[in-house]
Each structure stands twice: as C-alpha cells, then as structure tokens.
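To whoever is covering the structure queue this week,

Two jobs came back overnight. Logging them here so there's a record in the thread.

Job A:
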Amino acid sequence: MSTESGAMQVGKVVILGMWLGVLFFSGPSCHAAPAKEKPGEAVAALNQDLAPQSKLPSSQDEEHSTAQKSIQADETVLGSSKTFPRDHAGSRHVAGRAAKGRPRCGVPDPVKVQDDGPSLNENRRQKRYSVDWTKWNKNHLTYRILNYPYHYRMTEDQVDDSIDRAFKQWGDATPLTFRRITYGHADIHIKFATWHHDCPYEFDGINGTIAHAFVPNGLHGDLDGDVHFDDSEVYTYWGDEGYNLFQVALHELGHSLGLQHSWTEGAVMAPEYSGYIPDLALQEDDIRAAQLLYGTLEPTNFGDPDSPCNKAYDAAAMIDGVLYVFKDRRFWRISRPGKVMTPSAGLPMRKRFFKLPRMIDAVYQRPQDGLIVFFKGPNYWLYRGRRPLPGYPRPISELGLPDDIDAVVMLQRYNTTYFFKDHQVWRFDEEYQSVEYGYPYHVLDVWEGIPPFIDAAFDYTDGFTYFIQGKSYYRYSNVYRNADPGFPRYFGNDFMGC
C-alpha cells in the first residue's frame, strides 16, 4: 500500500477500538500472525514492543477507569470495554447508558490546540477536528469485503450496502474515489473476525473491542488502511439493536483515511457513539478535516453555477444515435464527446418531450420499437417521438422493478437492459418484458469495477459503456468486461466541451 509515512511519528500505531463505555487499555501480545500477502508489495514488520497494560474490571466506575488508564507515548494499542447491560438480543438499555454515561471510542483524544496558539482558556476559539497528516498518497483507492458476519442479523446485501454507503460519503466530500473489487489486491480490506485473525491485535469476544482500523502511515505493511470488525458483536442494518454497521464503518473509515477524533459534538469523528441515528451523514467538521488532507473536488467552471460543466446529471441515454443528458427541466444533445449540439444552458425538456415531468430518474430507448422509456418515482412513461402513448404513466412495479431507480442502460447487441438502484442491478429481458431469474445482484457482481450508487448510464457507439456518478464518470470495456483504468474523469471536461 502506498502511503505518506514521513509525516507520522515513527513507531506510532493507532488501533481503533470504537465507541464504548468505560475505557480500558490493554497491550495484547503480538502473536506473529502473518499479514495477508498482496502481489508485488513488501510487508513491513509490525512493531511488537508494546508495553503491557492491565484491563480494569468492568465493575469499576468510569471515573476510576479513566484515572487508571495508562498510555505509552509512542506505541499505543487502544481498546474499550462495553459495560452497558444487554438483553439476549444485544440491545443497550437506556438505564445502563444513563448510569455509565455515553459510550465512546477508546482512541485517546488529541490535545486541544487553539487556532492562535495553545491556551488553557476553554472559551477561546478551538480547532475542532484533528488530523495527523497521515494520508494516502493517491486519490483512487480500491476496497474489498473479505467476508461477512457470522450471525444472520444482516444479509450480505445489507452488509454491502452499509459499507458502500460509508465509502460513498467520504468520496462525496473529497476527490477520493473508492472502487470495490471482489478478488485480488485491494488498498483497503474489510474483514469480520474473532480473537486471533491474522493480525497482531486480537479481539476479545463479546463486550470487548468492537473494531480496529489501521491508519495509512506506512508502518503496518499490508494492513495499512484495513478495517477489522469483531465478529463476536451483533451488527445491524437499522434500529437500536446491536451496533449499526454503517455508523461504525463510517467512523472507522475516517481513521482509515487518516482522521483523528473531533471535539465537535455530533460529528461522525466525535468519540461518542450515540446509538442508532437514521440518515447519519458526515458533518461540516468531518468534511473540513477530510478536505484538509485530500483537498476538494472542485468543478471545472466554478464561476458559473448554470454551466453544464458544473452539473451532476440526472439521466443519460442514446436516443436515435445521439447522446442525450438530462438535468432538472433541461436536456443537452451531444453528437460526440466535447461536441454539444444544444446551447450551453440546454433546452427545456418539454420542447422535445411533451408533458414530460421534470427531474426524471432514468431513460432509455427500446430496441424493438424505438419507443423512449422515461422513469420517475414509482411510474414510467412510453414516448413515440415527442408525445407519450395513451394510458401512461404506469407503475414501475408491473415490470418487476423497484421504484425510484437510479439509472438504466440498454445493451442493444444483447437485447438486454440493466436497471440500477443503490448497490443493486436488475437485468431485464426486452423480448419477454420481465426481470431475468436470479436478479438483482450487487453491481460489482455484474459490472466489475463499477461502483454502486450511480446516477446515469449509457452504452456509447465506441464499444464502451459509461456510468455517471456525480460530476465524474467511469468507462467500462464491453470487450474485456471490466472498468478501464484511469477513471473516474470529469464528465463536463470530456463530454460537455469544458
């Protein structure tokens, strides 16, 4: 794994035991467990000179635990005990939480530093987030989910979705891109494990350490950036039971990218875990910290918000041999990459498609009859030329597809259409007008190297299929059947003539 290791203090190891109640700190002995091998990379030896530290009994109160904790300056392994009473399903009782205080991450908090110098005056302006200038030295990263939780509280699709959404949030905030692969070498490995797990830092079973992540500082060899979850714990997709996997992953991946804890209450990188939070998202503080390390994803023409260079398009399709892209109430026609046939502001959709609703979700042209199919919310429309056919819109469900699809792409050479929503893909048989047996699958199982949560897609005349995500796009080789290297690129630069 390539990292910028010079900025880190030599020998500093940060292992993250996440969001727990009363803190304890222990120095597990290193068991010389071999790191996983990746082709062509030397595996650096892990520092094994960790000072032993005792684990406090869980019956001791938090104040005593905090007073007893001991941290070795340069070589620190951190864990935390979870002391909240649990029922047989693993739920945290409110009474237990009130008695012990809010659960928190076991990683030590960074020293408070004022923007204008050190100060003991808490009323002075604080630098809220904290980074250690440990970062990846590249912006395009791959990750691989090696296995799944042993328990069956979550399906594999739910695990995939939780991890994918966590990566997407960090990618949306920075120039970083994350591409999931299903085999071979990856920059970041995600693993569920118990006790000894080919890692120098073993887990301790239920009611112990939840997870740990390795910062990308060059000191951990093949483990740099990896995230391990203790499979003795119960992870869930939603609700208060157990630990929400998306929330844990979102926090841990922040550490995997080089972020430390934040002093800002409510930030994802704050030490405390506050239970299940629906629609949890990165806060301004988290985003600022990540952008301090990796910069921002600037639009090409940031002076003009109406420029086609700045837009994240809603839908795209090849219609009568011309590429159409749609955004809000307008559309653009592109004869070839960089050659836009419409004014830079686009044209109103209803000038071309009578009574078409604005902000469509997806569109494609059927090969068998040339009809244009538009999707929005729970409905779809059929158009012949400029006008909709009578009897439309109709419900998407009658096609066996979910509402609110993200994108659709038609491969005419196979007479097959693919529909995308979140991390899943459905293959649709145009002849029988039905979803093929066995679908949906994860996007990566069908389109190797293409990330989930795409916004639009189209099969172009050059033998490639294109996938738009935000303001960027990926190119998929229909010959080699995988994503091309060197992507994503800016869609505005390459297709809109910016």
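Job B:
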Amino acid sequence: MRMRRSYTVFAVSALLAATGLARADCTSGGITFTSQSDIDTANCTFVNGDVVISAAASGNITFNNLNRINGSLIVQGCGDATCSRIVGISSTNLTAVEGRLQISSVPSLGSINLPGLRRVNQDLILHDLPELTKVNLGGIKRVGSLKLSSALKLTKATIGSRGYSFDPNVGLKNITGNLTGSADAVVEVRDVGLRDMDGILDFWSARRLVIENLPNLDVQMIKVLNLDEMRVVGNNNLTLRFWEANLNEPNTPGPMINRLLISGVRSLSPCLQPVVHEFYAFNNSAMEYLYFNFDQLNHIEIRDNPRLKKIVSWASLNRFWRDIYIHDNPILSLKRFPGPREPGDNVSEVYCNDLSKIHRDQWAWFPNTFDNLVIDADIDNTFFNETFTNLWLNTSSPSETKPKVVDRFEVRSTNSTFDCSALDILRTQKGAFPGRYSCQGQTLPAGIGAPSLEGSMRMALGAAFMAAILLY
C-alpha cells in the first residue's frame, strides 16, 4: 500500500514537472511541435523564440491561445504528401510574429486562417502549396515583405482589407523591410490562381512589386504609393488600371513608380494618370493598342510586341521625355493622328467613356531636349512633320523652344513614302540633331548650328555643377 502511494506521488510529480517544463519552454526559447497534442500540452500564450510546426504533424493545427511569437512561425514541409499531412493552420488570437512567417512545400495544406494577425516584421512567405484554397489574413496591417507563389488553386484570398480606404490604420498599408532592415521591402505574387489582388495592393510603398503568371487575373487596379520597380508578366489577357492622386482631395494618394515593366499584358487603361518615370513594354503577344497616360515620364522603351498596331500617349504634358526606343514591333504604324478606331480598340470606352470622348488619339512632339530617339516602324510622314519639323521650319520662335535630340537620332520606316528630307535639313542646317544621326540608314554630317547647340548645353550643365559645388 505504501509502495503504491509512493508510485502515485512520483507519477503525479513527474507529470507536473513535465507540464511545468513545457510551459517554461514558451518563454525560454523556441519550440518545435510535432502534433496538435504537443501544442495543447504546452498551452503557450507567448513564445520567446521560433515556433516550428514539424512536417511530421498532421491534420488541422490550431493554436488559439497563442498571442505573440518573439521569433518566426515556420510550418515545415517536405514537398511529399507521404511525409507532410497538415491540412490546415489556424489561430484566432495570434496578433504578431516578430520574425518571419513561412509556410512552404506543404502539399496537403488547404487552408490558412489567421484573421487576427496584425503584423509580421520580416518576410511573410507562402510558397509551393498546391492544394491551398483558403487564406484569411484579413487583419494584416504590416509585413516586412510579402511573397506568395505556387498556389494555383488559390483563386480568392482575404489579405488585408478589400475595397478602398485611405486610413493608414485600415488594411495592409506598410511594407517595412527597407525601413527596419529586417527584410527586403518587396511584394511578389507568382504562379497563383488569384482572380484579383484587392487587399494585397493597398497604398503602401516598397522597393519592388512583382506580379507574374496569374492565369486568372484579367483586370487589376494598381493601388500603391512609391515603388522603385514594378514588373508585371500577365496571362496575355490582362488589363492594368492605375489609381491616381486626386489634386482636389489631398488625402487621396496616387502611385509614384520609378520603373514600370510589362509583358504578357493585353492593354493599359489610360483613364487615370499615375507618375511613372521609366516605361518598358516587351513581349506583349496579345497587345494591339497601347494607350498610356503617365505623368513625369522620361524613358519609353517599346519592343518585341508582335501584334502591336498603334501607340498613343494621352499624357497632357510630355515635357519630361528624354529617351524613346520603339522597335521590333513588326506591324506597328505611327501617325500623328492614327485615324478611326477599330472595333477591338475600346479599352478607354470600357473604363472611362467620358474621358475617351474628349481625348483625341494623336502623337504630339513638344519642345523637349531629348537624349535618344530610336524608332523603327511603319512611320507616316505626318508623325514628325506636323509638329517636330514644323516647329523648326515653319515658325519663327527661337531654337530653345524647339525639339532637339542631343545624343542619338535614328529613324527607319517601312513605309515606302517616308521622306527624310525635312529631318535631313534639321540635321545639316538647324542643329537639331548634333549627335549620332541616321534616317533610313543614311547618315549626314551635323550642320553648323550643331556644335554651338551642344557646346551651350554642356556649358550650362557645367555651370550648374559648379554652382552646386559652391553651394554645398
């Protein structure tokens, strides 16, 4: 009897000790859980380290009592359904992950339900989840970066707040990697079945935004603030729309994109006017009509678009243009006025019918000083002559108010009627093209006005540089 009582006391003491040890582990360092029973036994509300869900776990993994992780939350995967049988991850009370949240290569995972999660200070990575159909991160407000990839069954996700709100406390408004140094401030969405990215795109600033190979994404409004680079590889049926700042309402922000690269895109909506400094359109195999309406644009490069027929800039001010490269678009026709629209040329009527009625499809050359202008297409004589050459040959205004190309002017037209004579005069007599020059493959020496033009510009730049040094 005494031995049985001693054994009972020992067993209870051992159980209490084990429980106390498990609970102590919550604050003494990271924990690896291999099953739901491990999580229930530990009963952590706070973990002072990483939380790892082992690939050996199975079923629905729930940790509702856990509020904060002072480290990373990692769900291990192995890419093999025989060794990874987790089907769901959920927590109603988890609000913060101070490290990264990474769920990768879990082939059986169908749902991620973390509606109370407010911040992930480093990367939020969801990758290689072929059975994933549900994501609820509706409360997320701040991440170091967001990387969502290889989840083609995920057609709709709740990430942040859907709709439009300029309140900085509503929705995913902060991509903080470049501010904290803890992660790279990027948003990348690749090979995912999403039909829209509402909630993910929500007036934040980041270094890079990548949207690549989303087969179900046909129309998307781009709602961001400052981006160094935005790269889109569409499904060849994608129309991109852009938010713009409302000058009459200071609290309505608009995009400022340093470099925009698009491929696999069918069309851009020109209805709104974001700030874009460099625009590249490559390998858009379904694009026939390209309308763009970018403020402060200075670099344009449009090439290798096999079905592109027409390019029109709706921008009311293109005085920032410096470099234009348009080539290897085999059926592109360039005219001052492109003429009546074809039946399929209707993107502006669909998205901004009122604006389309007041905008005339035209290409106008303003008195810019360009660095490079390289164009190879079916160029009509009106494309240059009605504005570019006309400003030189038929107006008495000073040369400073006329368009010039300083470094490189090369034009080749497949139109048999294209005439270089007016451009040649600008080269040989007016000093409009002091640098490299070629029209229909023919080069001519620069005229007498060219050295003084180039010299005056270089002197002005030198004077500005010296003034800056003195002021500094």
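Note for Job B: The chain has a mean pLDDT of 86.

Please reply-all if you pick these up so we don't duplicate work.
Q.
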